[in-house]
Amino acid sequence: MRPPIIIDYIGSTLRATLVCSGATITGYSCLRDGSHALVSSVAATSSGNGHMYADLALPTSAGWLVNEWGVTINANTYRRFAMVDVRGVEVD
User: Fold this and answer.
1) How high is the pLDDT of residue 90?
2) Residue 26 region, left (φ>0) first, then alpha (ψ -120 to 50), else beta?
3) Alpha carbon distance 58, 14 (integer Å)
4) How far apart are CA 24 and CA 9, in angstroms?
């Protein structure tokens, strides 16, 4: 199964979201580059009923990143990944 692909633009903010069916969860979301170096990381914010979000700053150069979620649900730890295609803004 391939991870989802998110397309966004350089210098903007990616709002990553996660839903866990009303469970009480805590977690983080981060962006990593191709060499697994940390680009951006924040603690996730709960918006109620198992809905979490994290606003991640995107770099000012184009390229592929990995969005990683790490969450704890009832003492169990889970990780989820998505690919992020950071593109330059094209002007005609």
Assistant:
1) 82
2) beta
3) 7
4) 32
- Would you say the pTM of this structure is higher than 0.90? no
CATH assignment of 5-87, given 2.60.40.1220, 3.40.50.300, 1.10.10.10, 2.60.120.260? Answer: 2.60.40.1220
Cβ-based burial of 8 (10 A; exposed 0-12, middle 13-18, buried ≥19): middle
Average pLDDT over residues 8-36: 88
Count of residues making up the chain? 92
What is the signed CA dihedral for 26, 17, 81, 23, rounded to 10 degrees?
40
Q: Where are the domains of the chain?
A: 5-87
